[in-house]
Amino acid sequence: MSERVRRMARDPRRSCLVQAPAGSGKTELLTQRILALLAVVDEPEEILALTFTRKAASEMRTRVIEALATPEPDAGASAHRRETWQLARAAMRRSEARGWHLLDHPSRLRLMTLDSLSYALARQLPLLSGLGAMPVPSEHVGALYRQAAEEALDQAMKDFPDIAECVLLHQDHQTTAVIGLLSDMLGKREQWLQKVAGHVRNMPALRKMLEEHLAIIMAERLRHCDELIPAAVRERLPALIAYA
Questions:
Q1: Angstrom distances, CA of residue 191 to CA of 72, 91, 93, 164, 234
Q2: Residue 204 contacts by C-beta under 8 Å, 6 or more apart in sequence?
Q3: Contacts of 19 (CB under 8 A, 6+ apart)
Q4: What is the mean pLDDT of residues 110-136?
Q5: d(CA 207, CA 199)
Q6: What is the distance of C-alpha 101 from the center of its chain?
Q7: Rounded percentage of the chain residues whose pLDDT exceeds 90
Q8: Are 149 and 99 in contact (CB under 8 A)?
Q9: How deeply is 127 buried, as exposed, middle or buried, from its count of CB atoms within 10 A (0-12, 13-18, 19+)?
Q10: Distance separating the N- and C-terminal Cα atoms of the chain
């Protein structure tokens, strides 16, 4: 990631989508952006950073607090580390001027999971949420995913019997297997929901995309199998397949 791109991405006046491989410094870049925002906002609660897991949210909070508490690096420090320190100094000056005391009250940093944000919004609007008693987030949701999958399949069999029949046929009419697959998909919805939603009004395009990705997966698996088969055995395969 070039320095020009990094400067653009951490500029609070810009909105950016950063896509980079593991180990390229995305977490450090996000830390720098939060520090840059802390230097200009009126209150730290105005900044919201969302993650999928509590572990990631905790790591992000730790990174920001450590940056705020880090003393000036020595002359041999990397340019990125010195930039982070400079941004942290500006944020600390803002904290002192506004009386935030961030090092004493790190909970004012709203670095949380999507579930935590949803829970906080529902707690602030108990009537509009229509939930009655406040729900409690659960980390053991396998049974709920399975229940949702069962209800979805049941509804599909009523409203779209042809499609449901086609799905069941692919699993030799093993309803339990289909429910298991749907349940597993719900647990990984962040990986596919956005792509599916983008094609919801164009089912042929969605089918084409899914078939193309499936073909890539199948080709990769076949290539891997081909590499595992010794050349001498490969020569005998056509006769064995014909016999089978």
A1: 40, 35, 40, 23, 37
A2: none
A3: none
A4: 77
A5: 9
A6: 31
A7: 36
A8: no
A9: exposed
A10: 54
Q: Stretch 85-106: mean pLDDT, rounded?
A: 91
Residues in the chain, overall count = 244
Spatial contact of 32 and 66, defined as CB atoms under 8 Å apart: no
Tokens for 224, please give them: 């891997």
> Band of the pLDDT at 149, cuts 50, 70, 90?
very high
Sorted by sequence, the CB contacts under 8 Å of residue 195 that are 6+ apart come out as 209
Handedness of CA 82, 88, 89, 90 (dihedral sign): positive
- Between the alpha carbon of residue 177 and those of residues 52, 154, 169, the distances in Å are 28, 14, 11
pTM for the complete prediction?
0.57
Residue 178 is encoded by which pair of tokens?
A: 């289909």
User: Residue 111's beta-bridge partner residues?
Assistant: 49
Supply 114's token pair: 């999507």
What's the 3-state SS for the chain? CCHHHHHHHCCCCCCCCCCCCCCCCHHHHHHHHHHHHHCCCCCHHHCEEEECCHHHHHHHHHHHHHHHHCCCCCCCCCHHHHHHHHHHHHHHHHHHHHCCCCCCCHHHCEEEEHHHHHHHHHHHCHHHHCCCCCCCCCCCCHHHHHHHHHHHHHHHHHHCHHHHHHHHHHCCCCHHHHHHHHHHHHCCHHHCHHHHHHCCCCHHHHHHHHHHHHHHHHHHHHHHHHHHCCHHHHHHHHHHHHHC
CA 169 to chain centre: 32
